[in-house]
Design brief:
Elements: H1 2-22, H2 25-32, E1 86-92, E2 106-111, E3 116-121, H3 125-131, E4 141-143, H4 149-152, H5 155-165, E5 171-176, H6 185-195, H7 197-202, E6 214-219, E7 225-230, E8 233-239, E9 248-254, E10 257-261, H8 269-275, E11 280-284, H9 289-296, H10 300-309, H11 314-324, E12 328-332, H12 338-349, E13 356-358, E14 363-368, E15 371-376, H13 390-394, H14 405-408
Parallel strand pairs: 3-4, 4-5, 5-6, 10-11, 11-12, 12-13
Antiparallel strand pairs: 1-2, 1-14, 2-3, 7-8, 8-9, 9-10, 14-15
Helix pairs in contact: 9-10, 11-12
The chain binds zinc ion (2 copies).
The site of one zinc ion (ZN) has 7 residues, from helix 4.
């Protein structure tokens, strides 16, 4: 009789002793009650500096990455950029007629010193920027390679939506002059802003006045010259060869790292000079002429003509990068699909065997002196606003525009708007 109840009790005692022995000392202490060192400290509130976003999401406090141990995917606003690192994000890698999964050309380059630079703002690229939920107060500089819509089609969105989203200083656009003044970046910027007169006027008094300004800096498309130099960052504009006079590329130097963006062009000696040995070199890599003809219904002859003065086929990209020998070559500017990617890689590899990325939208590169990490960003397709800063809230506003009395009298008396709260 006694044996019947003793067996389970004995088993329980043995299991208890086993569990006690298996527990390490720290775990045992934490069972008894955690010490101060083990207790999880509450996360302090974000500092109230002028640039701190006012609505920083809880649980998205960016962390430093140690020893290149990056998460497999990049989740926006979860990682600090290392002080000696640059992070490049593809906002758009396609051509005109942006597709849902491939917007027109756009790139964001973030530096470890806190600077952010945009290169090209093709149609749709702003959607990916919105999805990344950046600090919009810092997105005030864009460098445009030429004035084709697939490279500048979202400049209006960057100007006006960027202003709504949090920029409270003017937007600066850097780009080439044209053969005549009306073909240059200045005229483009002035005319674009003039076209949005109603939009800009409607926001007077509501948004910070300075955020609605667009300042264009045009540099001679024929020459290689430094167009930006500030806080240890130097950006050089160089000529490129693409359809019409007035296409350029850019090279950025910072902290002994170099980034080169070729815009759109056939292979040029200027790109070769600027990109040789660069840490990261982006150049267009168009469809093969045969594929272009298949896709568009053009003849192969017409497709080949595109490669004479406008675009670089994959074989040309391979040849160019074999001479450039960057730490990493980045190809973009073809309508991607599994078949296109296979043909591109085959043609590139005929002459270039170095490190290569065929860029897709939201590819992310972390570049430091001893490491390059290539990943994809994971974003929300219905993102909440990124939040504005204290600087945005406090920036000067103009006189608010009053609605005319004639229009007010047209309001339907059957509806009462929400009452203003009493404070
Ligand atoms: Zn173009
Ligand atoms: Zn293009």
């Amino acid at each position: 009789m006694a044996r019947k109840w003793m067996v389970p009790v004995l088993l329980l005692v043995l299991v208890g002793i086993g569990a006690f022995l298996a527990m390490d000392r720290a775990a045992f202490r934490s069972r008894l009650g955690s010490t101060a060192a083990q207790r999880r400290e509450p996360v302090p509130p974000a500092p109230a500096t002028p640039d701190a976003p006012r609505h920083y999401p809880q649980g998205r406090r960016p962390l430093a990455i140690a020893d290149h141990r990056y998460p497999a995917s990049f989740f926006p606003n979860t990682e600090l950029i290392g002080p000696a690192e640059m992070r490049l994000t593809a906002l758009g890698t396609g051509m005109a007629s942006a597709a849902p999964a491939q917007k027109s050309a756009g790139w964001m380059l973030e530096l470890g010193n806190g600077d952010i630079f945009l290169f090209d703002v093709g149609t749709g690229s702003q959607q990916n920027l919105v999805a990344l939920r950046p600090d919009w107060s810092k997105l005030d500089k864009v460098f445009v390679s030429h004035l084709h819509i697939d490279h500048v089609g979202d400049l209006d969105a960057l100007l006006l939506e960027g202003w709504l989203a949090g920029r409270y200083t003017p937007l600066h656009v850097y780009g080439p002059t044209g053969e005549t003044p009306e073909l240059g970046t200045k005229a483009f910027a002035q005319n674009l802003r003039a076209a949005y007169a109603w939009d800009i006027q409607s926001r007077a008094g509501r948004l910070p006045e300075a955020g609605g300004r667009l300042i264009a800096h045009a540099a001679d498309f024929r020459t290689t010259q430094v167009v930006y130099e500030k806080s240890g960052v130097k950006i050089t504009q160089f000529p490129q060869i693409h359809v019409l006079a007035g296409a350029v590329g850019f090279r950025l130097d910072w902290n002994e790292l170099s980034f080169v963006f070729g815009g759109a062009s056939i292979p040029s000696r200027w790109f070769l000079e600027q990109a040789r040995g660069a840490d990261i070199a982006i150049h267009e890599c168009f469809d093969t002429p045969e594929r272009l003809a298949e896709r568009t219904g053009a003849s192969v002859r017409e497709a080949v003509e595109e490669m004479l003065d406008a675009h670089t086929p994959p074989a040309g990209f391979g040849k160019l990068m074999a001479a450039v020998r960057p730490r990493l070559a980045v190809a973009y500017h073809a309508a991607l699909g599994p078949e296109e990617m296979r043909r591109q890689v085959e043609a590139i590899r005929e002459s270039y065997d170095g490190p290569l990325t065929l860029a897709e939208d939201l590819t992310v590169w972390n570049v430091s002196a001893d490491h390059i990490e290539v990943r994809r960003a994971v974003v929300d397709t219905l993102p909440l606003p990124a939040g504005t800063t204290r600087g945005y809230a406090e920036a000067a506003r103009a006189e608010r525009q009053a609605l005319s009395e004639a229009l007010r009298r047209g309001a339907w008396e059957g509806y009462a708007p929400p009452a203003l709260p009493q404070d």
